Amino acid sequence: MRKLIRAGLEADPRLTVVAEAGTAVEARKCIQSVEIDAVTLDVEMPGMNGLEFLKRLMAARPKPVVMISSFTPEGSEAAIQAMSLGAIDCIEKPRFGEAERTFARLADLLVSVAGKKTNLRFPPSSRGEHLAPQHFAEWNGKFILIGASTGGVEALEYLFKEFPADCPPTYVTQHMPEQFLSSFTRRLDGIVAPEVRLASEGDKPSKGQILFAPGGAFHLELSEEEFRAKLSAGPKCSGHRPSVDRMFQSAVPFGSRVIAALLTGMGRDGAEGMLNLKKAGAICFGQDEDSCVVFGMPRAAWQLGALEDLVGLPQMSGRLLQAASLAQP
User: Fold this and answer.
1) How confident is the model at residue 329 (pLDDT cuts 50, 70, 90)?
2) CA distances for 64 relative to 33, 89, 293, angstroms
3) Which residue range is the domain that position 74 belongs to?
């Protein structure tokens, strides 16, 4: 696998592979002796596993880390845990015939995050020390829609830990493989106050519920029957399935009853849909550059004029809840 990764990355002129390691001990020596801008890390390694090494790395020498994981239920659970610990993203070990596409995505990801400070904005020790409000002020009938991609696991976990148990009804589209989304929603449901689960056809979230696009073969859209989930099969949109653009665009008929947020992520998925939402009367926020792992998606929306404001992640939950409350200043 190391040979495959090296060959795939060295084919990209933007990257240089400066070291490789087969164990945590070797990796620690490399990081101590070689100047490194980004790291790929296997979840499964001899001796100390990748998660324990990641935890120690983020405590001692934080660097952008992309996990390489098996596409199995166990691998998915470990990958989500790794991203919660501060890894930027997780790439599936390439399947037969898909290595070129996998390594092209990995190369783009490494280039976008190389050298960035990571896991310093919201270290794990600080998350959860701020208590979510116990109850939500009187709901004004607006639904919250959130789109996220690279860095979204940590951002969404941070955000929803500040949502009360009776939060406004919320839909989320996060770019992830189907198995990872299943693991992520189960994890979130166990650590935040609201109920978190994957959306099913015909669902309509009530107060205290956060529904995620299940991904796989489907986009999550809002049906013409007010705010119900519709799982739509079809090609990728803006390079993704599930697509944030598809979710935002489907909500345009309900524009004045929508609060939308676009969080950290590569590319521009969600920007066009958010612009149309804003034109339809929605309140639209983007995560600011300082708190993003990758500022691509919010930047694209900001450049189109689709945002009310750029908001730091620590302030995002407050802005969203305020916009959904009758008790606005």
Assistant:
1) low
2) 17, 9, 9
3) 2-113
The reply to whether 60 and 163 lie within a common domain is no
Note if 84 is an active site residue. no
Q: Could you tell me the pTM of the whole model?
A: 0.89
pLDDT at 30 over 80: yes
Catalytic choice (69, 76, 84, 149): 149
Q: Counting every residue, how long is the chain?
A: 329
What total of structural domains would you count in the chain? 2
- 291 tagged catalytic: no
Give DSSP secondary structure letters for 51-74: HHHHHHHHHHS---EEEEE-SSHH
Q: Which of 42, 245, 269, 288 is catalytic?
A: 269
State phi, psi for 196 to the nearest 5 degrees. -125, 130
Q: Are residues 157 and 93 in the same domain?
A: no
Q: Which position among 42, 69, 112, 175 bears the catalytic label?
A: 175
Measured distance CA(267)–CA(106) in Å, rounded: 14
